[in-house]
Amino acid sequence: MPRVSLLMPVFNTAPYLPQALASVRDQHFEDFEVVVVNDGSTDGSSEILRAFADDEPRMRLIERDNRGLIETRNQLLHEAQGELIAWLDSDDLCHPDRLRRQVEAFDANPGLVCLGTNIELVDPEGRSLGVEEYPEDDEAVREAQMRGGGLRFASTMQRRSAAIAAGGFRHPFRMGEDLDFLLRVAEQGRIANLPDVLYVYRQHLLNTCTALGLNWPEYCAVILELASERRERGSDRLQRGEDVPLPQLNSGDARKLIPIALLDWARGALSAGDRMRAFRYTLSSIRMSPLRGAGWRQLVKLLLFR
């Protein structure tokens, strides 16, 4: 049995998939398997995955029709054989020391059930948009979780036994399923983050946050309410078989979020010292939404302050 199962859901990420897989191959820690579920991709991802699997004996590739992210994550969890499980989104990258550093932390802390890392944000071309830092100790992470943060899910490693005891991923969360899962994993033991940047999180306009993000406040509020219910009553409405109404997701709203995302990228590019890239993203945001004041204010700041 491998010590670690690295789990990757894949759906139509062919432009970024070779880099993600290369970051798996380049890990300094070697006692792991990589389990990939290709959730009915139609963009050439399958060919990339098969070619990689032919050269990588530690990879197990499962290909099937499209069933969605929750079913894919749960299948990956079911297929995992390692004592520890780590996640990697197929449009992101791992630092070569990621698995080694996380395994060392689990070995040093028997009560630890979930461990994340700080992350670097990059744009679609892989250029830096700055670093996100997360609290390190258990209490601080839990406090941040109850505000919808605390851990970046894709950077996390868990004890497989804790992930299974938490019940895996749940409907009806088409977004935020990772926060709901992590809150239940945290009920199994200690949680923490490493202070190092060991994960690269790619921003692009086809990811879930951009496509469905207008509904995030409502989804997050429901997920946190369920966590409070479990603390107070020992179970939540979903666990008791009750309905949990959520707003209808509309992927057509994605266009409304694109100008906001572009401004976020502009600020990130500026924090990374790249003013020209910040200008380009700001101007793209203004072109898409010329009546939004935020884009013009950002442009003024770029022109007046150096």
Order of helices and strands: EHEHEHEEHEEHEHHEHHHHH
Strand content: 15-25%
Summing up helix and strand content along with how strands pair, one would put the structural category as alpha/beta
Supply the number of helical segments. Answer: 12
List the helices and strands and how they pair.
Elements: E1 4-10, H1 17-25, E2 32-39, H2 45-55, E3 59-64, H3 69-79, E4 84-87, E5 93-94, H4 98-108, E6 112-122, E7 128-132, H5 138-145, E8 157-159, H6 160-166, H7 177-185, E9 190-202, H8 208-212, H9 216-233, H10 254-271, H11 275-288, H12 293-304
Parallel strand pairs: 1-2, 1-4, 2-3, 6-9
Antiparallel strand pairs: 4-8, 5-9, 6-7, 6-8
Helix pairs in contact: 7-9, 10-11, 11-12
